[in-house]
Design a protein that fits this description.
Elements lengths: L6 E7 L10 H15 L3 E7 L19 E5 H6 L1 H7 L4 E6 L11 H10 L5 E4 L2 H9 L8 E3 L18 E5 L8 H9 L8 E5 L6 H13 L6 E5 L3 H10 L2 E4 L8 H8 L4 E4 L4 H4 L6 E4 L4 H13 L1 H14 L6 H15 L1
Parallel strand pairs: 1-2, 1-3, 3-4, 4-5, 5-6, 7-8, 7-10, 8-9, 10-11, 11-12
Helix pairs in contact: 1-13, 3-4, 6-7, 6-11
Keywords: Transferase
Protein name: Glycosyltransferase family 4 protein
């Protein structure tokens, strides 16, 4: 392949690499762009405002005819008219990080954007097998155009944790779909269990009212001394949080995959998570994870109580996580799948 054929335009939300605006989609875009360069692609980043009056502009118009472009799904569904025009003259690959309709309060414009853009894309990269199946079932793409490239994780040192198993960690934007309210309610049922603490790491900016409400609920339940609202953690500080964690909790109401789950298991940290979306794919092997119904604080509380009170369960789950950690999928694996998709379109 000649050099010009290896150019790929990568259209992403503006600030996708801003450490204060961490999201699963942004992490995916960052890591894939880096790994594609390592595989020989000339990756040309185009940052686009995700939500503003600028959505009326066409970020694809300046690109030469026949260009190969990878578009973050957030950008794609926000600009259906631009994508429709682009698909007529460009080779368009959409990275689908989520399914808008799966959110509790789905944005009608986002749902409509999916219906207009995804069927027209030449390829759709789904972040999990679950998402691929959902997109095909809903007629948003066809099996021959759907490719699964699940998120990877970095090779990391095994977490040291604590002797009691009481260091709990929850990572993700503080928002209803991530279910931190369910976690707070579950923890309020465990005030009789000594020695546990929980760090909730993630931005509170997108849903400030929700974040303030559950923080107030935690305080009213007498959990202020046991829950730390850490906000967005830089990479190094987040690594430290994982290193000190005994268990990662992911109480999501909807989730395409769960990058934090993969990051935890790559460090040998067991997981208690919701049995929703693509989480069962991420929460492997089964012996390293307990899955509970989403939005069910009683079920989550029971699972946490078993973890905290049963040393044999903790030892078994930790051993399973540590044993499987070296074989976890890496970001280079994710990028190789996308690389093969781009080569086929080239």
């Amino acid at each position: 392949m000649n050099t010009s054929a290896r150019v790929v335009w990568f259209v992403v939300p503006d600030g996708f690499d801003d450490p204060d605006r961490v999201s699963g989609g942004n992490v995916y875009d960052q890591r894939v762009s880096v790994e594609l360069r390592a595989l020989g692609w000339d990756v040309r980043i185009v940052e686009v405002a995700a939500e503003s009056s600028a959505a009326r502009t066409d970020p694809f118009e300046p690109l030469p005819d026949g260009s190969l472009i990878v578009v973050d799904g957030l950008i794609a569904i926000g600009r259906p008219s631009a994508i429709e025009a682009a698909c007529a003259r460009l080779r368009v690959v959409v990275l689908a990080h989520m399914l808008a309709e799966s959110f509790p309060d789905a944005d009608p414009q986002a749902v409509e954007g999916e219906k207009r853009t995804l069927p027209r894309a030449h390829r759709v990269i789904a972040g999990s097998e679950w998402l691929r199946e959902e997109l095909a079932r809903r007629g948003l793409s066809t099996p021959d155009r759907l490719v699964v490239a699940t998120p990877g994780s970095d090779e990391a040192a095994m977490a040291t944790g604590t002797a009691t198993g009481g260091s709990l960690l929850c990572v993700g934007v503080v928002a209803p779909h991530k279910g931190q309210d369910t976690l707070v309610d579950a923890l309020a049922r465990l005030t009789d269990v000594p020695s546990w603490t929980c760090t909730i790491a993630g931005s509170t900016a997108p849903e400030p009212d929700f974040a303030a409400r559950i923080a107030a609920e935690a305080q009213a339940a007498g959990l202020s001394e046991r829950i730390t609202w850490a906000g967005v953690l830089t990479a190094g500080v987040l690594d430290e949080a994982y290193a000190q964690a005994d268990l990662v909790v992911a109480p999501s109401r909807t989730e395409t995959y769960g990058i934090a789950i993969g990051d935890a298991l790559a460090r040998g940290i067991p997981v208690i998570a919701s049995s929703i979306g693509g989480i069962p794919e991420a929460a492997q092997p089964p012996g390293a994870a307990v899955l509970v119904s989403p939005g069910d604080p009683a079920a989550l509380g029971d699972a946490l109580r078993r973890w905290l009170e049963d040393p044999r369960l903790r030892a078994s789950m930790s051993a399973a996580a540590r044993h499987a950690a070296p074989a976890r999928r890496r970001w280079s694996d994710t990028a190789r799948t996308i690389h093969a998709t781009l080569e086929a379109l080239s």
